[in-house]
Amino acid sequence: MSINSCNHPSNDVFSVPARVSRESRPDKTVVNVRGIMVGGTDVVIIAGPCAVESSEQLYETAKAVMAGGARILRGGAFKPRSSPYNFQGLGEEGLRILKDISSRTGLPVVTEVMDTRQIEVVSEYADILQVGSRNMHNYPLLKEVGMQQKPVLLKRGMMATIEEFLLAAEYILNQGNEQVILCERGIRTFETSTRNTLDLSAVPMLKHLCHLPVIVDPSHGTGLNWMVPAMSKAAVAAGADGLIMEVHYHPDEALCDGHQSLRPDEFFQLMTDLKKIALAIGRNISLPEPSLV
Ligand code: PEP
Ligand code: MN
User: Fold this and answer.
1) Does the domain made of 46-292 have the CATH classification 3.20.20.70?
2) Does residue 285 surpass a pLDDT of 50?
3) Structural domain boundaries in the chain
4) Whether 77 contacts 94, CB under 8 Å
5) Mean pLDDT of 233-258
6) Statement: residue 282 has pLDDT above 50
7) Dist. CA 265 → ligand 2 center (Å)
8) Residue nearest to atom 4 of ligand 1 (CA)
9) Within 13 A of 65's CA, how many CA atoms are on the CB side?
10) Ligand 1 closest atom vs CA 132
């Protein structure tokens, strides 16, 4: 398919892969995560710690983000860390904690699968399989998650073009799994003041080119907790179908990514602000009763 849909020949930069292209499915894909619709009218908020640290930590955080309006819980059990000496995640114990907190709160959970050898065990516990930025080009992993019956959260590679991102999603769809959520999480540029450069232009571009839901990760996208609210609001205004955010009760003590994690009180405030933006553009964020604005 040509991406040129509005008579600007200069827009015609590459061919959109067949299965992800909007032409292949004029109705947008809505991914159903245990009854939570990603890609529908509601903007879906996913929140939780970067890493599962303990059962108490995840339970307290889950209750807080749920009260703030999050519909899905995040938490890494297998963590891709730049240094082999940093906390690598609790592994299978982390998965058990995720499942336990999921059944106690009712929140579906998303967690990363880093290797084809982990798919079986992660699928036992998680509602969404996350393929992280570092693995967007891991084609055996993409094919393998494509054979699962679970939604996949595919994060954009930090050096990936939009075309490469869509081709990675195509790998998954090609194996039969069409429940794919794309996630813009920032790309590497010459800029060093932020952890990554959050490419919000990817949101309208991806939605223009393909039928899959698109969410934004403002935590990894900026690396700075004070910047997360501004970029979250901008992401919703740009048409994102959801956000995935890191939240921690004690960011200073977090075992991973504390500097980009919001405290629950900051998360609450942000959610009420985000709802106003969602309503202004004809969408919604369903907040629990006490937080209704
Ligand atoms: C994460 O979400 O925990 C993560 C490691 O993200 P990314 O793959 O975008 O770096
Ligand atoms: Mn993180």
Assistant:
1) yes
2) yes
3) 46-292
4) yes
5) 98
6) yes
7) 19
8) 132
9) 34
10) 8
